[in-house]
Amino acid sequence: MSFSSDIKQELNKNSNLSNKNIVKQELVGYLISGNINIVNNKEIKFSTESDYNINRFSKLLANLDINHSIDMVGKNFVITLKTKEIDFIEYDKEIVKIKEIPENQEEKKAIIRGTFMGAGSINNPEKEYHLEMEVTNEQNMNIVLSLLLELGIKAKYMEAKNKYYIYLKEGEEISKFLALIGAAKAVMKFEDIRIQKEMRGKVNRLVNCETANLNKTINASIEQIAAIRKLQENGEFKKLDDNLKEIALLRLENPDMSLIELGKKLKVPIGKSGVNYRLRKIMEISNELVEK
What we know:
By secondary structure, the protein is α+β, with helices and mostly antiparallel strands. The protein has 2 domains: 3-182, Endonuclease I-creI; 199-291, no CATH class. It has 10 helices and 10 strands. It has helices at 3-12, 20-31, 51-63, 105-119, 138-150, 171-180, 184-233, 242-253, 259-265, 272-291; strands at 36-39, 43-48, 69-73, 76-82, 89-91, 96-98, 120-122, 131-135, 156-160, 163-168. The strands form 3 sheets. It has a 4-stranded antiparallel sheet, covered by helices on one side. Strands 7-8-10-9 form a 4-stranded antiparallel sheet. The radius of gyration is 34 Å and the shape is rod-shaped. The relative contact order is 0.09.
């Protein structure tokens, strides 16, 4: 079962339908969703493959004593009802429009919940963060965007081929959205996945950083060893002072050792900058031989 299906199953089980105004506004959300089709301004048809979704829609209609039928068309469930059965929305050229925006916060949340149930989806958060809802027209899209912003959620939108979408791509905003529509279990699951992803990301960044530092050390060590070998081959090594000879021999013996570790192994330990200075001096002497 997909993450979207889990959420819609959870919301479908929310049987608290005693408040008629909240039920009505959730139904409004369904009716402005992208899965609604108005036929000859006489019938409203809602189509979905989700049995949880169709069950919830049917519950809302039954709760308000709105007559409707449920049929199967291919793999889809289709609910059909008469437009005359609903007087709390408007119809304009076979498009449903919100007639009145409620003032009650819970009723506003109900519109969002209905819109998500009607034509919303969310990707598996283990792969990527993406939640979207399709609405019937630009006016409804702007209303839903305004409601979300008022309820503390910053959503984005896009229009494609006369279809209107509201979407979220940030983990924190999606988590807030799920809490807003009442999907408490989904919030917990989403947050668990989100925390695990963040931890994996931190570990990977640390590993990459350590790998980069190790590669840098190895590359520098290769250049230093090449310079020391060149001095040995040209008989110039014996001319180095004792401090340079000591660090050079240590580098030859410990090609993968960091500057800090090399410094600790000297007879008189020194810090990273001191070791770096001595090795750079050796490199300079070696480079001068090449120039000559």
